[in-house]
Amino acid sequence: QVSWKLEDHPILPKGKTVALIVLDGWGEYKPDEYNCIHVAPTPTMDSLKQGAPEKWRLIKAHGNAVGLPTEDDMGNSEVGHNALGAGRIFAQGAKLVDLALASGKIYEGEGFKYISECFEKGTLHLIGLLSDGGVHSRLDQLQLLLKGASERGAKRIRVHILTDGRDVLDGSSVGFVETLENDLAKLRDGGVDARIASGGGRMYVTMDRYENDWDVVKRGWDAQVLGEAPHKFTNAVEAVKKLRENANDQYLPPFVIVDENEKAVGPIVDGDAVVTFNFRADRMVMLAKALEYQDFDKFDRVRVPKIRYAGMLQYDGELKLPNHYLVSPPEIDRTSGEYLVRNGVRTFACSETVKFGHVTFFWNGNRSGYFNPELEEYVEIPSDVGITFNVQPKMKALEIGEKARDAILSRKFDQVRVNIPNGDMVGHTGDIQATVVACKAADEAVKIIIDAIEQVGGIYVVTADHGNAEDMVKRNKSGQPLFDKNGNLQILTSHTCQPVPIAIGGPGLAPGVRFRNDVPNGGLANVAATVMNLHGYVAPNDYEPTLIEVVKN
Ligand code: 3PG
Ligand code: CO
């Protein structure tokens, strides 16, 4: 039985409006021309850094600090927002899948048994992101699963690939497809009929999120399930090379692999098994719904095969989606959001569509909906659809800032929490100039919110979930930008392993509050206890320690 009552903070008062601003993809890195945050005019964030040294610091946002397998794993928004909201570090999907594969437990679980009953007569389809980015999926996990499934009776396997170029370098898709083709050839040598069946770029095919654009999922469905796509090839390496002439990895159009009679080699049919091998939820939920739901009206599925479907993980615990899965997801309980609401903290959360679930669902430990609708309001501002964000780098930053401002000035809320996506979403396009504009817009949004906090005598906390816009090039070990064999700068579209800033301030901040210096390795998970303090509470014992202390003057 959880005791939800939080202890009062011995010094800090209750009732101050706290604005909690998460800049998405905003890390700290050396100031050079590829650091878009440095290049952009960001007077508000600069002033926070320069203003009061005891109210600005860096915290870790990658690797073990956010529950990822190794210190080489860059942070991402899912694990970042989980840590920010939960106040503790949970082993995340990437790590849980690694453990399950290493111990073999993955094959003993209910999910694998369920799908393996199709191996005798049906085909095993594996759908997911093909890269070693480690954000949504990992190639080595796919490789182990292919091997493990064929050793356990899968006789016919079809892989439906989604090319990346977002968590890894653009252009790297070719190498990943070659590696996969090699593995599949080896399986064929061992008597397993294993092939790539379809493909497409992750941002154009299948991996939409938060129901932003169902057409993306439909394009994938047509290729993967129906075996229909505008582009037909007999070989996946050739497909990717050819399609890259007009698009980058993220946006490759859908294609299917066909045999000599132009017939798709791997549509999904009755009696087949399907596994979506991404461990991360946000960009698999929509496909999972299309595969699993009887009643489904988001697009015309044309043909709905009777399959056995399992996710690598269960993507949504509330919806039990999908019903079957190979590895149990982290159980993130007792989040700061739930504690605060149960202690009467009236909470407002807002972002635009592409990051709305981050500041609500991920923040709340992968839980959708309100804890108490009487005390909470979550506002989603519709994102622009059908463009890449370098075309509209300001995105909805201003609107988010204004919504937060209105929420603060209304005095109806104790916590006003936003995610400002620009640095991340535009950073992922690899367009440096646009990312500079994006960072400027994000900074302006911060100013709107901080100004409102000044007006109501509140407190602000500004931080970020992981790095992205602060470094837009791939570098060697000594930090020099790398060039490809044609002499072109290697643009970094992915996140980084850099730390992120956290700043506190505002007229409501009690005198003497400052960052402690005895939490040098503080990370995102330390923010929750900090915020609880600013609301006048002490965090539960098992939370990562607060970053602040109150000194008597
Ligand atoms: C994406 O899904 O857009 C990227 O792979 C990761 O970005 P996010 O972790 O910032 O959402
Ligand atoms: Co991102």
Provide the number of structural domains: 2
Content-based structural category: alpha/beta
| Tally of contiguous helical segments | 16
Give the N-terminus to C-terminus distance in angstroms: 41 Å
Task: Characterize the main sheet.
Answer: 8 strands, mixed
What is the oligomer described by this structure?
A: single chain
Q: What is the CATH superfamily label of the largest domain?
A: Alkaline Phosphatase, subunit A
Question: Given this structure, which CATH class of the largest domain is correct?
Answer: Alpha Beta
Looking at the structure, the CATH topology of the largest domain is Alkaline Phosphatase, subunit A
**Strand fraction:** 15-25%
The radius of gyration over CA amounts to 24 Å
Give structural notes:
This protein is α/β, with parallel strands linked by helices. It has two domains: 284 residues, Alkaline Phosphatase, subunit A (3-Layer(aba) Sandwich); 234 residues, BPG-independent phosphoglycerate mutase, domain B (2,3-Bisphosphoglycerate-independent phosphoglycerate mutase, substrate-binding domain). It is 31% helix and 17% strand. It contains 16 helices and 19 strands. The strands form four sheets. An eight-stranded mixed β-sheet has the order 7-8-6-5-4-9-10-11, with helices on both faces. Helix 6 packs parallel to helix 7, helix 7 packs antiparallel against helix 9 and helix 13 runs parallel beside helix 15. The structure holds 3-phosphoglyceric acid and cobalt (II) ion. 3-phosphoglyceric acid (3PG) binds next to helix 3.
